[in-house]
Specification:
24 helices; binds magnesium ion; 12 strands; 605 residues; binds adenosine-5'-diphosphate; six-stranded mixed beta sheet; four-stranded antiparallel beta sheet; single chain; alpha/beta
C-alpha cells in the first residue's frame, strides 16, 4: 500500500514568488461561470471612464466659444452638458457595482465550499501536519482577498489602462509637445512597479502565513483555556501571541512602506510633469500659439487621469495579495485526496468465508517520522475470529491507537494487508468500509448539535428513535434523558458541556448505533467511574456477543470483556491468549495488569 505524502507548507525562505499572472489565472475555472457579467461590468466601467474624459473637451468648447464670446446662454448650455455627463458617469459606475456584487459573492462562496469539501476528504495524515489556523485563514482572509481582487483590481487595472491610453491620445491630439512632456514619467513609473511587484509579493506571502500562525495560537488558546488557566500560563501564552502579532505588524508595516514608496513615485512624477506642462502651456498661451481652451482641456484631461494613475499602486498591491492568497488556497486544493476506493465492489472473499478481522504482516510508519526510525508497528499478525472480541493491551505509546486507526483506514498501512472476512480493506470503498467498521476514539469528540444527532452520526440515514434508544441503553447513557431538552439538548462547542465520562458514553453509543459488523474501541471506558464502568460493561457484553471487536484496554475489568487478549510490545504482537493464560505466562502482561485490585484478585483465584 503506497502512502501519498501531502506536501508540508514549504518554508518561507525557499519559496520563489511564482508569476503573479500565472497564479491568478488559476482562478479562471471559478470565474468562468460569471465571465459574461464581469466583462459587461468592465465594458460599462470603461464607458463611464471615457465619459469622464469627454468633460475636458466640453470645457475646451466652453472656454474657446461661449466664454470667449461672453455668451451666457452658451455657458448655461455647457453647464447642462457637464451635469448630464457627470450623471451618466455616476449611473454607469453604480450599475457596474450592482452587476458584480452578487456573482462575486457566489464565486467566493463556491471557492469556500470547495475548500471545505477538500479538507473533509484529505487524509488524516494531512491534518496531522497542517496547523488548523493555516487552514482557517485560507478559508477566510485569503478568500476575501480573492473576492476583493475580482471586484476591483481585475476590472480597474483594465479600465484604468484603457482610460490612461485614451486620455494620453486625447492629450497628444490636443498638443503633441505637451503630451510628450506628460509621458516622460511613464518610464520610471513602470520600472518602479516592476521592482515593487517582486518585493511586495514576498512581503504579502509572509504576512498571510503569519496570519495563519496567529490564528493557530488564538485557536489553541481558546480551546485550551482550561489548561492555560489551570497552569497559570496566561503570560507565556500571551508572550507567544505578542511575538507573533508583532511579527505580523512588522510585515504589515513593511508592506505599508513599500506601498508608500511606490505611491510617492507614482504620484509625484506625474504631478511634476503636469506642473511643467502648466508652465510651458501658459507661456505658449501668452505667446499666442496655443488657445486657452486647449490648455484647459489638456490640463483637465491630465487631472482626470490622476486617479487612474494614482490607483495603480494599490491595485497592484491588491492583485499581489490576491495572488498569494490564490497560491495558498491551491496549496490545499492541490493536495491529493484519499481516493474513495473501488465502487460497489462488494467482492466476497472467494473461499475464506467468515474470517473475522485479520492483520497480515502489517507494518506502519508515520509518513512524517524521521527516516531510519523504527516503525510504530512491525510486521503485526493478528487474527480476530468472527464474533470474537479481542482486547489489545500494551504500554503507553506502544502503538495501540495507531493499530486501531488502520482498520477504518484513517492511516494507510505502510506494508502488509488488513482483511475483513477475507476481503482486503483496500478493495472496499471507503464508504462501505466505514459502514461495516465502527470506531470510538480515545478522545470523544462531540459536535455542536443535539445529543441525538451526535449519536446518530454513527448510523445510516434510516436509523431513528428506536436505534438511538437502544444505543443509549447499551452505552448506559440514560443521563441524556435528564438533560434540559432530552436527546434534543445541544452539546459540543456551542452547547452544554458534558463530563468526560458522559462524552465517552455518547461516543460509545455512536459506535454501536449502526450495529456494525466490526467494532473498534480505543480505550472506551477510561473516563468512567467504577460503577458506571460496570454498568457499561454489562451492556457492552451483550453487544460484543455477536460483534467482531477489537478493544484497547488498560484495566483487567475491561480486558475481561474480551474473549482473548493480544499484547502489543515493541511494535509487535508478542503474545495472544486469554487473560488468565497471559497473566500466568507473560511477565510483561502481568506487570501491565498489576496494581489493579481486580487483576490481583483474578490472579489469586
Ligand atoms: N500522528 C502521529 N504522527 C507521528 N507519530 C505519531 C502520531 N501519533 C502517534 N505517534 C507516535 O506513535 C507511537 C504510538 O502512539 P499511539 O498509537 O498513540 O500509542 P498508544 O495508543 O499505544 O499509547 C508513539 O511513539 C507516538 O509518539
Ligand atoms: Mg492510545
Amino acid at each position: 500500500m503506497a502512502t501519498t505524502l501531502p506536501p508540508p507548507p514549504p518554508p518561507l525562505e525557499t519559496r520563489e514568488a511564482s508569476s503573479t499572472v500565472r497564479t491568478l489565472l488559476r482562478l479562471w475555472p471559478y470565474v468562468r461561470p460569471v465571465r459574461a457579467r464581469l466583462l459587461t461590468a468592465a465594458v460599462i466601467a470603461i464607458l463611464a471612464s471615457c465619459i469622464g474624459l469627454v468633460i475636458p473637451l466640453v470645457l475646451k468648447w466652453m472656454v474657446d466659444g461661449p466664454i470667449a464670446d461672453r455668451d451666457p446662454a452658451g455657458v448655461w448650455l455647457g453647464a447642462l452638458y457637464l451635469l448630464l455627463l457627470g450623471l451618466a458617469e455616476a449611473l454607469l459606475f453604480g450599475l457596474r457595482r450592482w452587476l458584480v456584487a452578487r456573482p462575486l459573492a457566489g464565486v467566493e462562496a463556491g471557492m469556500r465550499a470547495g475548500l471545505y469539501r477538500r479538507l473533509q476528504r484529505l487524509p488524516v495524515a494531512f491534518h496531522d501536519r497542517w496547523p488548523s489556523g493555516q487552514l482557517l485563514s485560507r478559508g477566510t482572509t485569503d478568500l476575501m482577498l480573492v473576492r476583493m481582487f475580482l471586484a476591483f483590481p481585475l476590472t480597474f487595472l483594465l479600465v484604468n489602462g484603457v482610460t490612461i491610453l485614451v486620455g494620453v491620445i486625447i492629450m497628444l491630439i490636443q498638443d503633441w509637445a505637451l503630451g510628450l512632456v506628460v509621458l516622460i514619467p511613464a518610464v520610471p513609473v513602470v520600472v518602479t512597479c516592476l521592482i515593487f511587484e517582486k518585493r511586495y509579493s514576498r512581503a504579502s506571502r509572509l504576512g498571510q502565513d503569519q496570519v495563519g500562525d496567529l490564528t493557530t495560537v488564538v485557536e489553541e488558546s481558546v480551546l485550551g483555556i482550561r489548561v492555560i488557566k489551570g497552569f497559570g500560563r496566561h503570560r507565556s501564552q500571551a508572550r507567544v501571541f505578542r511575538k507573533l502579532s508583532e511579527d505580523l505588524r512588522g510585515t504589515e508595516l513593511r508592506k505599508a512602506r513599500l506601498l508608500g514608496a511606490i505611491m510617492s513615485v507614482i504620484v509625484t512624477l506625474p504631478e511634476l510633469a503636469i506642473g511643467t506642462t502648466l508652465v510651458l502651456g501658459t507661456m505658449r498661451v501668452a505667446d499666442g500659439d496655443l488657445s486657452a481652451g486647449t490648455l484647459v482641456a489638456f490640463l483637465s484631461t491630465a487631472l482626470a487621469l490622476r486617479w487612474p494613475v494614482d490607483s495603480i499602486g494599490f491595485l497592484l498591491a491588491m492583485s499581489q495579495e490576491a495572488a498569494t492568497a490564490t497560491e495558498r488556497y491551491f496549496e490545499v486544493m492541490d493536495t491529493e485526496e484519499e481516493e474513495p476506493g473501488p465502487h460497489g465492489a462488494r467482492t466476497p472473499a472467494a473461499s475464506a468465508g467468515d474470517d473475522g478481522l485479520r492483520f497480515h504482516d502489517v507494518t506502519f510508519r508515520y509518513p512524517d517520522a524521521p527516516s531510519g526510525s523504527p516503525p510504530v508497528l512491525d510486521r503485526v499478525d493478528l487474527h480476530i475470529r468472527p464474533g470474537e472480541s479481542m482486547a489489545l493491551v500494551g504500554a503507553t505509546g506502544s502503538g495501540k491507537t495507531t493499530l486501531t486507526a488502520l482498520v477504518p483506514r484513517l492511516h494507510e498501512a505502510t506494508s502488509g494487508r488488513i482483511t475483513l472476512d477475507g476481503t482486503d480493506i483496500t478493495a472496499l470503498s471507503r464508504e462501505e468500509l466505514r459502514c461495516r467498521v465502527s470506531v470510538a476514539f480515545e478522545e470523544p469528540t462531540l459536535f455542536s448539535a443535539a445529543v441525538g444527532e451526535n449519536v446518530l452520526m454513527g448510523a445510516g440515514a434510516a436509523a431513528g428513535k428506536d436505534e438511538l434508544e437502544r444505543a443509549l441503553g447499551v452505552a448506559q447513557a440514560d443521563f441524556v434523558h435528564a438533560l434540559p431538552q432530552g436527546t434534543d439538548t445541544q452539546v459540543g462547542e456551542q452547547g452544554l458541556s458534558l463530563s468526560g465520562g458522559q462524552r465517552q458514553r455518547l461516543a460509545l453509543a455512536r459506535a454501536v448505533v449502526g450495529q456494525p459488523d466490526f467494532l473498534v474501541l480505543d480505550d472506551p471506558l477510561s473516563a468512567l467511574d467504577v460503577h458506571t464502568e460496570a454498568a457499561v460493561e454489562a451492556a457492552l457484553r451483550r453487544v460484543l456477543a455477536d460483534t467482531t471487536a477489537l478493544i484497547v484496554a488498560h484495566r483487567p475489568s475491561t480486558v475481561l470483556l474480551a474473549d482473548r487478549v493480544a499484547l502489543l510490545s515493541g511494535g509487535r504482537i508478542t503474545a495472544v491468549g486469554t487473560h488468565h493464560e497471559l497473566l500466568r505466562t507473560n511477565a510483561e502482561y502481568a506487570h501491565l495488569m498489576a496494581g489493579d485490585p481486580v487483576g490481583q484478585k483474578e490472579e489469586q483465584r
